[in-house]
Amino acid sequence: MARVKQITEKNEISAEHEEIFDSIASSRGRISGPFSVLLHSPEIAGRAAHLGAYIRFESLLDDDEREVAIITAAREMNCNYEWAYHVPIAIQAGVSQEVVDVINQRDSTSEIDSNYALIIEYARQLINAKKVDDETFNRAVTKYGNQGVTELTATIGYYGMLACALNVFEVTPEAGKPALI
Fold first, then answer.
1. CB neighbours of 108 closer than 8 A, spacing ≥ 6?
2. Model pLDDT, residue 176
């Protein structure tokens, strides 16, 4: 059970913030997960949702690359909720179970697709060291260009922020969803 009430219905917020609620609900089909707790600060929720919509639907990253970045962020942040909901999306986008397992077990990336390995290493460094070494950064710029690296960094940071909210407020996934080891 979450530490704060999860806001999932429009009547649970003030009338002045109903537009934010409606915008988030319409873009995602419902209010759940991080937005159910971020709506305690409607402006934060609305602005976060706006950035998230860009990352999920307009970013230069391919769907599979974006999802590898997301599930790596979820793993490195130990965020069960994010992991549970994005692993199926990653698999649907073409990410193999082998890559998912490498991320979940924090294994070496030496035996997987080099593009995925780059994203995983980049995300691991960014979250754990709070920076990315020159070699990894330069490989990312060569692969994605400056805009792509900016979007990769923002994707990892955005899902890291959501993981912070999910972890702090103890939002948990439904039973039966994929779980971190």
1. 102
2. 84
| Residue whose C-alpha is closest to residue 171's, from 75, 44, 38, 25 | 38
Which of these, 173, 152, 181, 157, lies nearest to 34 by C-alpha position?
173
Which residues, 6+ apart, have CB-to-CB distance to 36 below 8 Å? 2, 6, 7, 8, 171
**Nearest CA-CA partner of 34 in 56, 13, 7:** 7
Q: Could you tell me if 159 and 24 are in contact, meaning their C-beta atoms sit under 8 angstroms apart?
A: no
pLDDT value, residue 181: 75
Cα angle: 61, vertex 81, 179; to 5 degrees: 100
Rounded CA gap, 53 and 35, in Å? 13
Give the Cα separation of 148 and 12 in Å (integer): 38
In 3-state terms, what secondary structure has residue 54? Answer: helix
Q: Residue ranges of the domains in the chain?
A: 10-57, 63-168
pTM more than 0.90? yes
- Residues in the chain with pLDDT < 70? none
How far apart CA 119 and CA 135 sit, in angstroms, is 13
Instruction: Please check whether residue 126 is in contact with residue 75, taking contact to mean a CB–CB distance below 8 angstroms.
Output: no
- Torsions phi, psi for 13 (to 5 deg): -125, 165
> For 63-168, which CATH class?
mainly alpha
pLDDT digits (tens, 9 = 90+) for 61-111: 999 999 999 999 999 999 999 999 999 999 999 999 999 999 999 999 999
